[in-house]
């Protein structure tokens, strides 16, 4: 291979495919390779036979649960915030034309040994059994403050609410909210995994709550949407985008060696006896074990149910959060449930995926409180995955490594990592507004 690529991308996980798509749109010469014969890497969606093979279960899944074409099971469960960064990236790149989405019907939280619907507006808050009457009014006042904040910032400052200086704990105190309500807001709305946010500047959490409120306003019930046929559709859509703009994709390509020059900077990737030359590499962490470290673990359990999750209004899709304080933990437990309505399972089967950050030597025990809320479980697939983070300096060796997927139930941290890699790669912030050159390209394509 004599040609030199601007970027070689290793791995077809969502992060790598987003970066590949964006770099291609920006007219970089991109070669994208994956050792697997399917898209998605760690974030793939598998059919039923692939599930049994991946988790080393005996027998053929299709003989037990029907045709492979009925199944698209996510290895890493996450929903999409409808006003979040991933949606902005989808719109910026026009990837939405390759995808179809459906809203997630219900959002729930486990408090005081019961499952409660997360209020989607002030009116629902007044009816909620999560809080007493006086607390409901304080909560409603707080929500109104957050909603109005971005239109009346100066007024907020006059009240003494400097969100960049005061902590979130101090802001909650201004509204006289009790610990139960604070726990609910911080974990079910701001979607923090643990409580360290209380001592950080309030701006961070208020922004997260505002994102939640804006996302809910898109569809009215929850802030979440989900792609038909599973999350594996997302990396494939960005791969199509890259191909439209000249990117080259190669699946089932073993990565035999990465070549460096005398100064230790990457100069090529060897596969099946051929070396593709490049200026830099973007990679999923498993391609560079010598340049990453373990920063934690996530335990997940994919469950097949023959019923919707109990006490959730028999909804076809939901998110259920168990705040850490409810089960004496340091991190929340998440349950994502989807069904045939999203074309991910055989009709009559619901998929519930439980996940949390590992804290002990017995990860399976840690998710038992969530499993107990699911009712009868027909099939279980357990996994414990390392969260790998890069240790190299990409500005020195030209290798830009993404981080592993955390336990969060949405894609905001995923997109933050994409944005960080993009900035390291280009020296510029990733902008979600389309550039004039991109608009001209679209007009040319249409003509």
TrEMBL record:
Coiled coil region boundaries: none
InterPro entries tied to this protein: FAD/NAD-bd_sf (IPR036188), GDP_dissociation_inhibitor (IPR018203), RabGDI (IPR000806)
GO molecular function: Rab GDP-dissociation inhibitor activity
Example GO biological process: protein transport
Cellular component, GO annotation: cytoplasm
Pfam families to which the protein is assigned, alphabetical: GDI
Gene3D superfamilies for the chain: FAD/NAD(P)-binding domain, Guanine Nucleotide Dissociation Inhibitor, domain 1, Guanine Nucleotide Dissociation Inhibitor, domain 2
Family: Belongs to the Rab GDI family.
The protein, known as: Rab GDP dissociation inhibitor
Organism: Anaeramoeba flamelloides
């Amino acid at each position: 291979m004599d040609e030199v690529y601007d970027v070689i991308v290793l791995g077809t996980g969502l992060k790598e495919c987003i970066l590949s798509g964006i770099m291609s749109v920006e007219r970089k010469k991109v070669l994208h390779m994956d050792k697997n014969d399917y898209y998605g890497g760690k974030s793939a969606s598998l059919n039923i036979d692939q599930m049994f093979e991946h988790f080393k279960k005996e027998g053929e899944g299709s003989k037990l649960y029907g045709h492979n074409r009925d199944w698209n099971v996510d290895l890493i469960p996450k929903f999409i915030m409808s006003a979040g960064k991933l949606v902005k990236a989808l719109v910026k790149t026009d990837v939405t034309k390759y995808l179809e989405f459906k809203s997630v019907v219900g959002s729930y939280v486990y408090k005081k040994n019961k499952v409660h619907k997360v209020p989607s507006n002030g009116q629902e808050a007044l009816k909620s059994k999560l809080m007493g009457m006086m607390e409901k009014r304080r909560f409603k006042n707080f929500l109104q403050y957050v909603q109005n904040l971005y239109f009346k910032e100066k007024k907020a400052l006059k009240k003494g609410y400097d969100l960049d200086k005061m902590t979130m704990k101090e802001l909650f105190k201004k509204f006289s909210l009790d610990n139960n309500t604070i726990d609910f807001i911080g974990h079910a709305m701001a979607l923090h995994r643990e409580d360290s946010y209380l001592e950080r500047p309030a701006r961070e959490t208020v922004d997260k709550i505002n994102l939640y409120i804006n996302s809910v306003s898109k569809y009215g019930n929850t802030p979440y949407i989900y792609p038909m046929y599973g999350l594996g559709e997302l990396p494939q859509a960005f791969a199509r985008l890259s191909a439209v703009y000249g990117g080259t994709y190669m699946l089932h390509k073993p990565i035999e060696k990465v070549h460096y020059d005398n100064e230790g900077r990457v100069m090529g990737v060897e596969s099946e006896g051929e070396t593709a030359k490049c200026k830099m590499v973007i990679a999923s962490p498993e391609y560079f074990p010598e340049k990453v470290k373990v920063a934690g673990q996530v335990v997940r359990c994919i469950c097949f149910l023959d019923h919707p999750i109990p006490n959730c209004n028999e909804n076809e899709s939901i998110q259920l959060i168990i705040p850490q304080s409810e089960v004496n933990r340091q991190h929340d437990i998440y349950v994502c449930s989807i069904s045939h309505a999203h074309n991910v399972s055989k009709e009559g089967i619901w998929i519930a995926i439980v996940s949390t950050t590992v804290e002990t030597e017995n990860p399976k025990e840690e998710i038992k409180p969530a499993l107990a809320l699911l009712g009868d479980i027909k099939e279980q697939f357990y996994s414990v995955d390392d969260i790998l983070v890069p240790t190299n300096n990409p500005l020195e060796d030209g290798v830009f490594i993404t981080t592993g997927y955390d336990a969060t139930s949405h894609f905001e941290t995923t997109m933050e990592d994409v944005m960080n890699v993009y900035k390291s790669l280009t020296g510029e912030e990733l902008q979600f507004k389309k550039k004039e050159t991109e608009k001209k390209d679209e007009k040319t394509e249409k003509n």
